[in-house]
Amino acid sequence: MAAAAAAARPPPGTVVRLLRLTGFPILAQLQIEEALLRATPDNWFVINDGTPKPSVVLGVSGKPHELVHLEAAAARHVPLIKRFTGGGTVVVDGDTIFTALIMQQQSLPGVEAYPRPVMQYTEDLYRSVFGSHGAFWLRENDYCFGDRKFGGNAQAITKDRWLHHTSLLWDFKRDRMALLQQPAKQPAYRQGRHHLEFILPLHEVLPCRRTLIDELCGSLETAGFVVREAGLGDAERALAANTLCGTRLLDMQQLLDGVGGRRQGEIGQQATAAAVL
Amino acid sequence: MALAAFAKQAAGSLGLRCSAPLCALATRGYATVVDGLSYSKEHEWVKADGGSATVGITDFAQEELGDLVYVELPEVGSTVTAGERFSVVESVKAASDVISPVTGEVTEVNASLSDDSSKVNSDPFGEGWMIKVKLADEGELAGLMDPKAYTDFCESGAH
Predict the structure, then answer these.
(1) Which cofactor does it need (chain B) (predicted)?
(2) B96 contacts in A (CB within 8 Å)?
(3) Which of A114, A143, A153, A247 to mutate to test the interface with B (most CBs of B within 10 A)?
(4) What are the DSSP calls for A109-168, one per residue?
């Protein structure tokens, strides 16, 4: 089954609509991705070269107070965004390259709309881009060269449609990465390393950012799709038609108030315990 | 042997009698199908009881999804609609929609899943139940599959 997913080819003439963006805000991009998944029947590849405002983006189940140093993020005016896909927490900015592949199951026979077959397929797809630059693989569901992660990924699946998106770190700012707490659940290969030792900026491995973007777009034709350029207007029509939106900007003040409330609760519990003793 | 024992336990917790012959159960290697339930093409099961129904995801679905780390359920009193999302579950970095097989008002949710989503994996037909619904249209049940048809559906690869 794994081999079938990795080697899957679309039927001849299967179209993927390509939406190229540059410096597009990540909140709007995620909302568009969700709309393209839910409100169109088409296959899409969205690529965005950087987002203008540094942001922290959490997965659907992410708990901000456990994953982010909230007070530091607030002090630096870094907004928190909850996205509609699973997966972990990332810090993104102008040096992050985003891709999203949105697919109708019937367009890739052999790739069932479940998490593992989808990732087996995308690993093979992206191998055509990254494979010649190092020991590329999908390791415990992270895109890595060797034991260092260069790209986060996450997915959303609805009926017979799926979306797989990535945030590829061309570069990153160490102080922004430090806004993230060490997550409780970590892949075994991370071996407890701090973010800065675990993450690999792509500029250390790849020669040219523009070439990477072109090759990511080119991977679709290599994979057997017919690629048709699309415009933002097409995406915005989907946005207007979509009724289910799981992506939203989180209220920082509300999050900080929640932290304060938890601390008061802890102080109260400690006082009670002291009184009992 | 283990599959039959699991099926008996699951069926028992639903108040069902599990048919002893293994031909009543799924023949796919790992997926269990329980008698007495109805099944949707999106791999949810329904246990109808008068004008109400209990809904969850099947053993096939939980196996394909992988270990669940998060289950989001609707609020009691809200309306679910057949063919539309009523829940989101997370596994292996994926947020997957769970599609309602019936229409009606949510009367109860399995709140324990917020603390222990693994119940959906370990006991999908029993402690992993997700919602209870007061049915708006019992006729919708006729459009679901019986255990044999669902077994055939899973094995056909048409899913």
Answers:
(1) (R)-lipoate
(2) 114-115, 156-158
(3) A114
(4) TT--SSHHHHHHHHHHHHHHHHGGGS-EEEETTEEEETTEEEEEEEEEEETTEEEEEEEE
According to DSSP, residue B40 is labeled -
Least CB-CB distance to A86: which of B64, B95, B159?
B95
| SS3 assignment, position B48 | strand
Give the whole-angstrom CA distance, residue A148 versus residue B66.
Answer: 25
pLDDT in tens, B116-159: 999 999 999 999 999 999 999 999 999 999 999 999 999 887 66
How far apart (Å, rounded) are the C-alpha atoms in residues A166 and A101?
9
A157 vs B69, B94, B159: nearest CB: B94
- Residue A157's nearest CA partner among A16, A60, A47, A224 is A60
With CB atoms and an 8 Å threshold, state whether B92 touches A246: no
pTM equals 0.89
Classify burial at A240, counting beta carbons within 10 Å of its beta carbon; exposed 0-12, middle 13-18, buried 19 or more: exposed
CB A112 within 8 A of CB A4: no
Contact B96 A88 (CB under 8 A): no
CA–CA dist B156, A260 (Å, integer): 55
Which region holds residue B93: left if phi is over 0, alpha if psi is between -120 and 50, else beta?
left
Q: ipTM score of the complex?
A: 0.91
Query: B4-46, pLDDT tens digit by residue?
Result: 344 444 455 555 534 333 333 443 445 789 999 999 999 999 9
Which residue(s) pair with A142 in the sheet?
Answer: A139
* CA distances for A41 relative to A37, A46, A243, B88, angstroms: 8, 15, 15, 21
Contact A181, A65 (CB under 8 A): no
Number of domain units in chain B: 1
State the CATH number of the domain containing residue B97. 2.40.50.100
End-to-end alpha carbon distance in chain B: 27
Q: Which residues of A touch B95 (CB under 8 A)?
A: 59-60, 84-86, 154-157, 246
Q: A6: helix, coil or strand?
A: helix
Tokens linked to B44: 């949810």
Q: Domain range for residue B131? A: 3-156
Beta bridge partners of A19: A46, A230
User: Cα–Cα distance between A37 and A44 in angstroms, integer?
Assistant: 9
